Amino acid sequence: MTVTAGAVAARAPTLTVVADFAFLGSSPRIGSLLLMLLAWVAWRWRIPRLAMLLSTSMGLSLGATQVLKDLFGRVRPPAFLGLGPVLGSCAFPSGHTLNATVFFGRAALLLATQLRTHVARFAVLLVWLFVCVGVGFSRGYLGYHWLTDVTGGFVIGLVVQAITMLTPTFTGDQQFERCINPFPGAATEGPQIRRPTGSTEAE
Description:
The protein is about 65% helix and about 0% strand.
């Protein structure tokens, strides 16, 4: 309650405008952005499994949000604290934060695979983290969530990311993994076989 009350107490016209940043995590907005991302994937990679992975990630995100809200049944902060319409859904986890963590995380990883340097890749991931923090902060600032709702949404989003990131490992598809992992390990490149000096390969 202390964090939520502090965010409410810190309200100012400028911050309230910035707090509308939360719309980035709304289901309609995420759905529109997902269609754009899928179009980019279809144009850039033409790998159906990659499009399926993106859709599955968001499906898991939306499904986990609804299941956990029903399971925990946590009440939102008092309605008088909210800046906007009263919401009838439960509080935990923050769906906006969870959706933003999964979608923008997946988009950031895809973009990072197209960059040449580790510095540029890390910069993209930092932007993703900034978006997640911004969306989470806005949900508390607007009076719709407790801090633990936001934290839970972020952590669950990371779990969903981890599950989908491991998919290529289970399938052993190295080309697929290179499309979604901007920091591939040595295993991604496959085993390197060294031949003794002077040896010849059998015809």
